[in-house]
Protein: Mannosyl-oligosaccharide glucosidase
Amino acid sequence: MRPRHPKSLVTGLMWVDFTRPDWFTSIRHEALHSDGLQTYNWLEHDGESYGVQHLEDDKFNMTTAAASREAQPQRPVISFFYYVAAEGLEPLEFDAAAWRASVAGADGAAAAGPPPATLRGSSRPFGRFAVRVGATGAPGFPAGAHWVGLRTPHTANLTEAVKQGLRRSLFEQRRRGAEQYVLRLPDDAEPGANVYVLQVLAWLPATLEVAFVSGAAVEGAAAAPRLDALWGRPRSAAARARFQRAFPVSRSAPAGAEVVARAALGGLLGGVGYWYGHSMVWVVDNWPPVLPNWDAALCSASPSRPQFPRGFLWDEGFHQLLIRRWDPDLSRDILAHWLDLMASTGWIAREQILGDEARLRVPAEFVPQPTKAANPPSLFLVLEQMAEGLAGAEEGEEAAAAAGSAGTTHAARDREFLTRAWPRLLAWYSWLNTTQAGELPGSFRWRERDANATRELNPRTLASGLDDYPRASHPTARERHLDLRCWMALASRVMSRRRLERDAAAYADYDALRRLHYDPAAQRFADWGLHSEALRLERPAGGGDMARVEDEAPEYRFVPHHGYVSLFPLMMRLIPADDPQLAREIGYLLDPSGLLSPAGVRSLSMRSTLYGKHNTEHDPPYWRGAAWVNINHLLIDALEWYGRQAGPYQAQAREAAVRLRQIVLSNLVQQFRQTGFLWEQYSDTTGEGKGAHPFTGWTALVTLIAGHE
Ligand SMILES: *[C@@H]1O[C@H](CO)[C@@H](O)[C@H](O)[C@H]1NC(C)=O
Ligand SMILES: *[C@@H]1O[C@H](CO)[C@@H](O)[C@H](O)[C@H]1NC(C)=O
Ligand SMILES: *[C@@H]1O[C@H](CO)[C@@H](O)[C@H](O)[C@H]1NC(C)=O
Ligand SMILES: *[C@@H]1O[C@H](CO)[C@@H](O)[C@H](O)[C@H]1NC(C)=O
Structure:
């Protein structure tokens, strides 16, 4: 945990089971797949000050915020390590006697009066603060209270520090000729220590409680209220009531949908973090090509705690669809942080790897962010809601003002936000409009595809966010990408709402879209470019990695793959409600031998030649079949929207929305029940969760899907 302030104070918890033979490498600290927890997630979280997290480890079930555990007949012993680290290197004052007294209470020897603070210090933004850490374990075990104090700027990798402390104390015990070793910290501190790790050894059930006070309350630190007075049933009931008001789960949703929806929102809000530091940027025509950006702050949600614990630009637009509904102030705050990361050119790095802790989780070759590459400007999804809300508010302004409702306040704040964000939005839009433009007017092309790739069956398009989704097999400057054109249509629609951008909504023009992207033979929308269908991977005669072999020369044509990219005109509501193409698109969505799967709409049609194919010998399919919740959400939302527009296909759209929603929802609920996780994607053959987990980024959109009728 940390406040949203650079060079401030971080605290955290590790635990280890010393009876495991592999205890040395199994210290739990960061969310890592390799720890193999059965499950962990914020079951409830309000994004601000309240959260309940449940973790199931091998022998321990834990609930953090109370860190309690059910009684066990065999009384396992646990070691907790709680740390407080001043990132700005301010020394901490540690009171060893107070620390021992707070844990000795575990033996039933009730301390006379509340124990004094364990740690005191001074740190931004709190000023003076005090931390009181207390623990109680089951009686009968000589509970241990140990510690180590370090002076170090490396507050991001404290698992290592704990290991080193344990090792040092073992050596010391051996040197003294101890007959039995205790796995404990060495009980010493470096001068001026800015990091303290406090260890509690206890019999279960055990409780660890930390009280943090700052400002005037510091001198009375010991009298801080007990956690169970702040946490527990009343707080939980209030959080649940607020959830039910914000996200009423529809009556037709499958049983268990509300539990999943609450855990999804909890996971998303609990994954909101604060990072501070600089990106490394990769400037193609510069020497040196990799340069540090300026130091900046980011408050953002994140896709997945173990796999993607940082900000991702195109994920964030989806996250905000939920966060805006829960807490519009938090949402505007996050959007503002993102827009502040924009370079003067209008470019925003797609992955925000700010600070040491974030960097520790990214392989070095992926750290530099290419300044020529874009990423879907999905923030416009939520900006469009904001702009639509404002238009509505302007119409009903007087009535609302008379009522003095919270809605008016939020409309006013949205208006202020959009006004202040406007120069940045314009810069972003203009950057996309110029740097990502295609050869034909009104067409667009993702940059950074590798035209010289020899091992990829279809060179990836990382900028699009859809990595290995198949495009034209031979990247050229002439190709045109349908999804980017549709993102631009969305962006231009939002920009034109403010009427500051004359005819910017031109990209939403349906006839122009058809001229560039409609394949009349296949009767659907498509990318266009230099493409061959007759390609395969083959091992070269001399051995080595498999390489791409071309059985037929490519030609300029519509790219025949059918999947998420083809569906963007529908998702972005660019097809007129009375156009027969709408009926065709709905038919495609519901065709089980094409796009419809037991997990929802699949990313690539089963009829596509690259369906389920590896892209290289080593890269399994990613966006080549599996169903993703973000796209399914956009599809359901668009179908419902068409279901509200008068037209010949209105009823068809409405029914398709209901059907798709039921399929996606029942699979997600079932998978959550079976595995305890939300997943990055879902198998389009079995419905099973795949990839990163817990993935409470855009998969959390299940919360919105569960609310649709
Ligand atoms: C942890 O909880 C799970 C699910 O409730 C249960 O199946 C399991 O037995 C529990 N494990 C322990 C060690 O209590
Ligand atoms: C922690 O990481 C820093 C670099 O971020 C490194 O210099 C230091 O040695 C690491 N410390 C430990 C104990 O691994
Ligand atoms: C977008 O690009 C088109 C074509 O180059 C140009 O006419 C238009 O003015 C541009 N709009 C903005 C806002 O840059
Ligand atoms: C690809 O190959 C061509 C011709 O060999 C070369 O001119 C070009 O620089 C290469 N592009 C990249 C990105 O390596």
